[in-house]
Write a structure and sequence with these properties.
Elements lengths: L1 E4 L2 E5 L6 E6 L10 H9 L11 H14 L3 E5 L2 H12 L5 E5 L3 H4 L4 H4 L4 E5 L8 H7 L10 E7 L12 H13 L4 E4 L3 H8 L3 H5 L4 E5 L10 E5 L1 H13 L8 H14 L3 H16 L4 E2 L9 E6 L4 H10 L2 E2 L1 E4 L2 E5 L6 H14 L1
Parallel strand pairs: 3-13, 5-6, 5-7, 7-8, 8-9
Antiparallel strand pairs: 1-2, 2-3, 4-10, 9-10, 11-12, 12-15, 14-15
Helix pairs in contact: 1-11, 2-11, 3-10, 6-7, 12-14
Length: 359
């Protein structure tokens, strides 16, 4: 049996005669919708979105497009679908997509660019997830008939598996200039773009202005239960309706989900700095734990990736779980911690105490 108390989860285990607190640092996708979101979902005016008639979805799409400085938006069930619709729209079968080797598109989207769009990744190794403009330029396929052509450059901001690192606008602009000179579009996997915006103290529109399309998530850090948004030109999004349907993404009275996403845009982006502060406190505490290596200066947002010196990640996570802390493995000796709205400062302290026992 579980019940909510404050910012943590209290799990009552029968037979133990006590109460164990579970602090979930696996991902910022585990957040529960806020009371405001739940009320908005109940009260949302809805219609059939396959016909374009859901007023709440239409409002969300227009609001997101305005915030990001793009012409139009399309509500998606997931970030993976948003990214893959973009790849399908930007490319032709037999082309390559330039991606960083630890990117979400390459590692965690089920090779859909190959299965659905007939494209292959051209993998580049970045430093902390950052690709250099000259590196991308060197990877663009030469204009000779026996080489697969480059169809798209896909960037990620923040970069999940690099530890939530942030791409600066001038980095994106330099890559986009090179790609656009060759007539190649740039797509941004901006699942956590608002974390980048908060870290850089810049509006999201400035971070994505040089990208032809961008996807961002409502369920990562912003606490909505479901949903992502794909943004681009009006023509791009008009065709995106067709491709979303091909992938099974046509939805009916989906305003019940869009209502929560609207609350996420209006209320949840401004509090992300608290997650960043908690991640920094967590990183500094981890750096002082025996058998764990973390450089707090490299923690920019809400993700902390730690290297284990003496224990494999499976055993380490099992010991943590016994002490009421959940985290995720990103390698055989590497674990990831992600802060979010349902983890408070006292939870970070409790997690660090448990981690210290597992070193």
């Amino acid at each position: 049996m579980e019940r909510r108390v404050g910012s943590g989860q209290w799990a009552v285990r029968s037979g133990l005669g006590g109460v164990m607190r579970t602090i979930d640092l696996r991902s910022d996708t585990v957040t529960k919708p806020t009371p405001e979101m739940l009320r908005a979902m109940i009260e949302a005016p809805v219609g059939d979105d396959v016909y374009g008639e859901d007023p709440t979805v239409n409002r969300l799409q227009d609001k997101a497009a305005t915030i990001f400085g793009k012409e139009a938006g399309l509500f998606m069930p997931s970030g993976t679908m948003g990214n893959q619709v973009a790849i399908k729209l930007h490319t032709r079968p037999g082309q390559e997509v330039i991606v960083e080797e630890r990117s979400h598109i390459y590692n965690y989207e089920m090779a859909t660019m190959a299965a659905f769009s007939g494209c292959l990744p051209r993998i580049l190794t970045g430093v902390d997830g950052h690709l250099r403009a000259d590196q991308v330029e060197a990877a663009l396929a030469p204009d000779i008939y026996y080489r697969a052509r480059t169809g798209l450059v896909a960037l990620e901001n923040t970069h999940n598996m690099a530890g939530g690192t942030v791409l600066e606008p001038d980095e994106v602009a330099a890559i986009a200039d090179i790609a656009h000179d060759r007539g190649i579009p740039v797509h941004l996997d901006g699942a956590r773009i608002f974390n980048a915006s908060v870290a850089l103290k810049l509006p999201v529109a400035q971070l994505v202005k040089d990208c032809d399309s961008v996807m961002f998530c409502f369920s990562k850090g912003l606490s909505a239960p479901v949903g992502s948004m794909l943004l681009g030109s009006k023509e791009f999004i008009q065709e995106g309706w067709r491709v979303r349907k091909m992938m099974g993404g046509g939805m009916r009275q989906v305003g019940v989900l869009a209502a929560a996403a609207l609350v996420a845009l209006e209320q949840m982006t401004c509090r992300l700095s608290h997650d960043h502060e908690n991640a920094q406190i967590l990183a500094q505490g981890l750096a002082g734990c025996r058998g764990i290596r973390v450089d707090p200066s490299r923690v920019q947002t809400n993700i902390v990736i730690a290297d284990l010196e003496h224990t494999d990640s499976t055993a380490f996570l099992a010991m943590l779980k016994e002490r009421g802390v959940l985290a995720g493995a990103t390698g055989s000796r590497q674990v990831r911690f992600v802060t979010h709205k349902d983890v408070g400062r006292e939870d970070i302290s409790a997690a660090l105490a448990a981690i210290a026992e597992c070193g």
